[in-house]
User: Which sequence fits this backbone?
């Protein structure tokens, strides 16, 4: 399905709509990621000291990951408050998908600190909170960011399916293209989505490397 | 922070019939019925094989561990009664791999306890420079480096500077020179001996190296399977009649480069 001349002229003709859908898509992903980060990082910090909660919460996040995305969107529709047709439901589903990579990396990053560093921190009279915020967290940041990066790329991809429940975004073109058997329409959704994923991966990867250098 | 009472005449650290079990009720005894007093200004070396309980004994002093039985006293007060944070900020701690914070500069590492204690910035800076010079590192060259830009010996020097920064009366050292190459180790041992004499700190030093113990100690305590089997000044230590002392003495003769 290499885009030929007809596709390019199609893109040129519809560039305003494609741009609008792309911005919609970015908004969907950014909102979902912000919420997922705000849940997963504090949760990860919380479970580092609590082995019992750790297995349960990572297990639950794991289950969300295994539900096929179209099915998860379907399941959420009948649920009151968070469900229904539209963006809100889509954001909830995307958050559920993004949780696991961030939560797992937060936990792994925080718990794989050099034991000598932690021993020194404790022995020099740092409180558990000081050890968490001044030692564990800064040292885990690169690993946490790697989780955010994975989650962002996943969310951009799964975000296209959100169009199935009327959430807008680049998936709108893809679903319409499948219905009308139009390669041009499918590509109008798929190419910007792929580019978004590559750009996000590249930018977050650069940030991650900079943090690792410390 | 441990109050600096110059008139403090008792023992700075005291173990009274202390036992420590890993699982408090049924676990194996790591430390059994240890009684020991460390007076002000002493450099006490805890000597023993791996697993003899010397590190456990050290960690009982700064309340990283609490005794299953008996009392551990620091400045006349039981460690269970101390606020562990306050207790530890008055006790310097140096470990084998130094345990420097990799995301801090050398200066920030040294300033750890002064920062926690909210010293004024100027006082902290002066203290950082003073400490770095004390351990033989020129501040203008080293203060802004990260630990990964240092050699093993330099890292360990920073570890000592960090432990001494808030001027604690007690210094705990757990095989601080164990991971260094022999030449660097000998260098740091020599410097540390003169440093210890000048600073008049009360030091508890853990090692499995008899030569190091003989060189640095004002008194050597030999541990075997969690019990004290010999206590002696370095010059008398080799004459103590005990199988474990003879085993360590034999290690002196057979270890490579024992001519030192």
Assistant:
């Amino acid at each position: 399905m290499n885009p030929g001349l007809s596709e390019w002229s199609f893109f040129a003709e519809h560039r305003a709509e494609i741009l609008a859908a792309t911005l919609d898509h970015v908004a969907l992903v950014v909102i979902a990621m912000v919420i997922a980060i705000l849940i997963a990082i504090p949760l990860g910090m919380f479970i580092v000291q609590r082995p019992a909660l750790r297995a349960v919460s990572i297990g639950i996040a794991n289950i969300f990951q295994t539900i096929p995305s179209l099915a998860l969107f379907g399941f959420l529709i009948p649920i009151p408050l968070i469900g229904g047709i539209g963006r809100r439901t889509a954001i909830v589903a995307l958050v559920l998908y993004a949780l696991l990579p961030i939560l797992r990396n937060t936990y792994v990053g925080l718990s794989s600190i050099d034991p000598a560093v932690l021993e020194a921190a404790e022995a020099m009279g740092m409180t558990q909170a000081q050890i968490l915020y001044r030692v564990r967290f800064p040292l885990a940041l690169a690993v946490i960011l790697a989780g955010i990066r994975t989650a962002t790329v996943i969310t951009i991809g799964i975000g296209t399916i959100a169009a199935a429940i009327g959430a807008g975004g680049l998936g709108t073109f893809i679903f319409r293209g499948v219905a009308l058997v139009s390669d041009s329409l499918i590509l109008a959704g798929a190419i910007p989505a792929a580019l978004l994923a590559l750009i996000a991966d590249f930018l977050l990867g650069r940030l991650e490397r900079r943090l690792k250098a410390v | 922070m441990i109050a600096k009472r110059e008139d403090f005449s008792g023992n700075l650290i005291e173990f009274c019939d202390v036992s420590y079990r890993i699982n408090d009720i049924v676990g194996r005894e790591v430390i059994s019925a240890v009684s020991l007093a460390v007076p002000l200004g002493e450099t006490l070396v805890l000597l023993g094989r791996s697993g003899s309980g010397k590190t456990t004994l050290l960690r009982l002093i700064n309340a990283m561990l609490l005794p299953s039985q008996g009392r551990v006293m620091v400045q006349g007060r039981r460690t269970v009664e101390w606020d562990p944070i306050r207790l530890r900020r008055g006790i310097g701690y140096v470990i084998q791999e130094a345990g420097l914070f990799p995301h801090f500069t050398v200066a920030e590492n040294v300033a750890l306890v002064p920062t926690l204690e909210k010293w004024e910035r100027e006082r902290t800076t002066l203290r950082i420079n003073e400490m770095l010079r004390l351990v033989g590192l020129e501040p203008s060259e080293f203060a802004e480096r990260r630990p990964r830009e240092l050699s093993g010996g330099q890292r360990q020097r920073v570890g000592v500077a960090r432990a001494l920064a808030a001027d604690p009366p007690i210094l705990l050292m757990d095989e601080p020179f164990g991971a260094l190459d022999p030449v660097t180790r000998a260098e740091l041992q020599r410097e540390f001996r003169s440093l210890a004499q000048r600073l008049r700190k009360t030091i508890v030093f853990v090692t499995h190296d008899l030569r190091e113990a003989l060189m640095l100690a004002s008194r050597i305590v030999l541990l075997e399977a969690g019990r004290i089997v010999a206590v002696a000044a370095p010059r008398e230590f080799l004459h103590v009649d005990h199988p474990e002392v003879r085993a360590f003495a034999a290690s002196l003769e057979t270890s490579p480069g024992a001519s030192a």
